[in-house]
């Protein structure tokens, strides 16, 4: 397969733009207004909201991190009822349109109030427990601000307003297992999440429960941004412990998937478990005008510290571990995520997780030799192999044959 041509990346360029890659619109770079956020705000149309609205929350709740431990929290409602929630298969414009119509209603709450919630927080917790949309009416102290809100982890939302009053108008549909675990105040959060995941509760539901303070033996609100990554991480750790007891894969297996400007190549190699993610932001992509390549990884030992690739690392790792768990095998994993300029607005870390899942559900190409797998993988990427190969420790450290390969 012919190799696609692309631009090379330099270490100097990496140093110059790493602040945008790290910050991703969260204000950590020190600029009062992110120029990328400002540019994106000019591209979208935000709805005008009055002082009262009603509708069906997806269900979705939001907990901010600013001012922690006194945070802003509340339900998220659509300004116009959408026929379906954003998902893979929808195009970028459809997803953006649906998310820009989502309105945050917020009130200040101390994180430790989760254990003994007031009326507003209790209503938010009921919404978070539901597995189906919940009807709600909200009143604002004043009409919500028309402002685009997003970063590299959260799904974008539109206007936000100070919550004055809220009432649930339909009965939440709460799975029995969720009700049981929420009532168990003795179970640590990681144990509770692993049990709910094993019972078939989806990852978005789990992060809602964690965020709104319904899991763990020390109940507290957890900023939504943190809860999303924490849920991916805790489930990933649980699956990793399981996978480490499985036999190694035989041969090399290459998986591929692409959606919404995100392309994944995932190579499984016959060796003890390790996971390596290389993240390539192509030139002129969202956070990296000149391009950027980052890397992080781990072996069978517990991972130390927070990944420099942020929530995308844990989301991609989860997708791969889910596949290995179903297959009953362990492997050395090299995952490459290549992001193009088609990913023009950050849609949240769910895109990373779901595109990686799509890749792992594809029919893999099997190879007997690593060199053959590497050649095909490189041919599917736009970025020249010379730009990312030096970061791929699974490949560069694999030049010596293992005993069982002779």
Automatic annotation (TrEMBL):
* InterPro entries recorded: Nre, Nre_C, Nre_N
GO BP terms: namely: DNA repair
* Domain Archaeal Nre C-terminal: start-end pairs: 298-406
The UniProt entry, under Pfam families, shows: Nre_C, Nre_N
* Domain Archaeal Nre N-terminal: residue ranges: 29-287
Record's protein name:
DNA repair protein
Q: Which organism is it from?
A: hydrocarbon metagenome
């Amino acid at each position: 397969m012919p190799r696609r041509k692309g631009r090379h990346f330099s270490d100097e360029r990496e140093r110059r733009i790493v602040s945008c890659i790290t910050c991703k619109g969260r204000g950590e770079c020190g600029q009062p207004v992110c120029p990328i956020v400002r540019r994106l705000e000019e591209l979208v149309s935000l709805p005008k909201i009055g002082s009262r609205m009603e509708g069906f929350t997806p269900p979705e709740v939001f907990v901010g991190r600013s001012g922690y431990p006194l945070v802003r929290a509340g339900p998220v409602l659509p300004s116009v009822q959408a026929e379906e929630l954003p998902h893979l298969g929808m195009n970028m414009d459809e997803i953006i349109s649906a998310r820009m119509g989502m309105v945050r209603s917020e009130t200040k709450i101390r994180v430790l109030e989760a254990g003994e919630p007031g009326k507003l927080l209790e209503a938010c917790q009921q919404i978070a427990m539901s597995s189906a949309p919940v009807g709600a009416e909200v009143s604002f102290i004043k009409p919500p601000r028309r402002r685009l809100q997003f970063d590299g982890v959260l799904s974008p939302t539109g206007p936000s307003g100070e919550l004055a009053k809220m009432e649930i108008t339909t009965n939440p549909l709460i799975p029995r297992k969720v009700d049981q675990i929420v009532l168990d105040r003795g179970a640590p959060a990681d144990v509770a999440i692993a049990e709910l995941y094993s019972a078939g509760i989806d990852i978005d539901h789990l992060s809602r429960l964690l965020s709104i303070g319904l899991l763990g033996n020390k109940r507290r609100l957890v900023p939504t941004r943190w809860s999303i990554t924490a849920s991916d991480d805790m489930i990933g750790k649980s699956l990793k412990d399981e996978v480490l007891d499985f036999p190694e894969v035989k041969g090399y297996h290459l998986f591929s998937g692409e959606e919404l400007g995100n392309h994944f190549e995932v190579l499984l190699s016959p060796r003890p478990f390790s996971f390596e993610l290389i993240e390539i932001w192509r030139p002129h992509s969202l956070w990296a005008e000149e391009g950027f390549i980052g890397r992080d990884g781990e072996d069978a030992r517990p991972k130390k510290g927070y990944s420099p690739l942020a929530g995308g690392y844990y989301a991609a790792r989860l997708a791969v571990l889910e596949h290995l768990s179903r297959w009953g095998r362990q492997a050395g994993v090299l995952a490459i995520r290549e992001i193009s300029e088609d990913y023009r607005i950050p849609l949240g870390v769910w895109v990373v997780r779901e595109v990686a899942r799509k890749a792992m559900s594809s029919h893999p190409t099997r190879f007997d030799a690593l060199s053959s797998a590497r050649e095909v993988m490189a041919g599917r990427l736009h970025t020249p192999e010379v730009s990312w190969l030096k970061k791929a420790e699974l490949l560069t450290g694999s030049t010596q044959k293992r005993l069982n390969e002779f």
